[in-house]
Amino acid sequence: MADERWFSETLTPGVRLSFEARRVLRHERTDNQELALFENDVFGRVLLLDGVVQVTTADEFIYHEMMAHVPLLAHGEPRDVLIIGGGDCGLAEEVLKHSSIRRVLQVEIDPSVAELARTHFGEINAAAFADPRFELRIGDGAAFVRESDERFDVVLVDSTDPIGPGAVLFTREFYAGVRGRLNPGGILVTQNGIPFLQTREFADAFANLGATFRHVACYVISVPTYFGGHLALGWSSDDVAPLAVSTEALETRFAAAGIQTRYYSPRHHLAAFAAPRYIEQALESAVEQGRKAGLGDP
Ligand code: SAM
């Protein structure tokens, strides 16, 4: 994966995306995955897990703003939020910018990632760690949703790809567990990878979501370090259709929230659901396949 000067993303067979490391901060095998943290002149601090880019300080705002503000502003009055994964804790900071939030519980499996989030990603998460509404718990997100009886307004699955410890977070059983943790009006948003490259993974995950939730959609974002075209974020809810909220309502909520953003805007919020046709078709056929497997028990 690395000669300690160049680190390569090896997610797609036949392709390598390489970053020069000006300084290697960590490179080790944790109990859960291979972890590499280094500094790059273009992207700042870069975290790779199992040879896949997770976060960079230069472009994290795109992913974190769109994963947080789309469901939170669509919900309107979110109070309790569950984050599964999200080790760098940049997402928690974005969620906590909403004053309606009274609690963010984050369940992250890897203590090494959680520890380096504190020591090396302060510029994107210091406000979260200083916020009494934030609780970071070490554990498997799938076990948590299975065993907990707590309920949340919004659940955000800020996961690795469906390999290693993250694989369980794309299964029908997991999605059914999340469904049981949602309050009425609740919304689930998931990280669903790059449809152009991860065609099979995209189809499998959306079939599982389609088998579980009434409203299933995806919206797309463009993140420079997530190579291969648009990244898909999944939207699932039994009660809230993704386009049920108007631009005007979003503008009002966004202005009232007083949050500064660099990527998110209410107009772009709705536009992001107009995915390119190849993604829309893949989504429709996967959800249809899931529907045939039936809503309800996994
Ligand atoms: N934004 C990133 C992306 O899409 O590339 C995801 C970032 S975040 C660092 C992903 C986190 O999910 C990692 O810290 C990893 O340890 C965590 N994770 C993987 N499997 C998990 C599981 N079963 N339960 C909880 N956390 C998990």
Give your account of this protein's structure.
With 298 residues, this protein is of the alpha/beta class. It folds into two domains: 5-56, Roll (Spermidine Synthase, Chain: A, domain 2), CATH 2.30.140.10; 60-293, Vaccinia Virus protein VP39 (Rossmann fold), CATH 3.40.50.150. The chain is 35% helix and 27% strand. It has ten helices and 13 strands. The strands form three sheets. It has a seven-stranded mixed beta sheet, sandwiched between helices. Helix 3 packs across helix 4 and helix 7 (199-210) packs across helix 10 (277-293). It is globular. The chain starts with 5 loop residues before the first strand and ends in a 5-residue tail after the last helix. Bound molecules: S-adenosylmethionine. Residues 32, 49, 54-55, 63, 84-88, 107-110, 113, 140-142, 158-160, 165-166, 168-169, 191 line the site of S-adenosylmethionine (SAM). S-adenosylmethionine (SAM) binds next to strand 6, strand 7, strand 8 and helix 5.
Specify Rg, calculated over alpha carbons. Answer: 18 Å
In this entry the ligands are: S-adenosylmethionine
Give the name of the CATH superfamily of the largest domain. Vaccinia Virus protein VP39
The shape, in one word, is globular
Q: Compute the average pLDDT.
A: 95
Task: Domain count, please report it.
Answer: 2
CATH class of the largest domain: Alpha Beta
Task: Tell me the CATH architecture of the largest domain.
Answer: 3-Layer(aba) Sandwich
Number of alpha- plus pi-helical segments? 10
* Cross-sheet strand order for the largest sheet: 9-8-7-10-11-13-12
The CATH topology of the largest domain? Rossmann fold
Q: Roughly what percent helix?
A: 25-40%
Major beta sheet summary: 7 strands, mixed
Low-confidence stretches: none
Structural class: alpha/beta
Query: How far is the first residue's CA from the last residue's CA?
Result: 38 Å
Order of helices and strands: EEEEEEHEHEHHEHEHEHEEHHH
**Share of residues in strands:** 25-35%
